[in-house]
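Q: Hi! First time doing this. I have a protein sequence and I read that you can turn it into a structure. Is that right? Here it is:
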Amino acid sequence: MSSISFSALLASWDRQQSAYIAEREARFNAQLEVLALSAGQEFHVIDLACGPGSLSLRILRRFPQARVTALDLDPVLLAVARGALAEYGDRIRIIQADLADPDCFSALSGPAPQAAVSSTALHWLMPEQQLGLYRRVAALLADGGVFLNADHQRYDRRHPRLKALAERHDEQTQEQAWRNGVDDWDRWFATAVQLPELAQHQAQRESLFAGRPVPPATPLDFQIAGLTQAGFTEAGPVWQLLDDYVIAGWK
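A: Yes, that's right. Below is the predicted 3D structure, encoded as structure tokens:
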């Protein structure tokens, strides 16, 4: 890259994301622990809405025998992921795909993967699109396969005190990050697309995301019910901090 390495850009992404997720590394570690317990050390995992590759990178480092197929729609973030993860060679495959599309897994072939993961991403799908994706993931996975989704699942009017606490916690986490000079999302993106290697993808990105509605927040019980209805035999949270969860589903 001309002025900054892709690895450094991914590291700066991780810093700005930690402003929105108070215990982001602990949440990643929970996913990795359950992945190890459920799938062992040698497996094929699908990283859904991989962004610039934060979770894929941690899986590749933790599990030297694992293979990752990473999917995302955003061409800017995919360019970062391809650069930052290039050293892992054929252990990582990166595909542009729209998870809202029923054919989002059409480029996949070969034996069924043992796991699927996602982090801070699926809340950008409309609730009905999430449910459709869960059905497709359940159909895709090998028998006994695990799906691990790390994301905020917001409290609703049934839990006003918890909702207020979670919102206050988010505000405090962000205020601390801004005081420490961490970029917010807008500043990170504006800096990234100044680089020629990423600027070339900006027009396509704007076209792909134009007119997409902002989804309503979903609570934990919506997610559990959705996974169960999609065909997972067991589903539940394996990690939680207020309204931030890792939810697991086993086929």
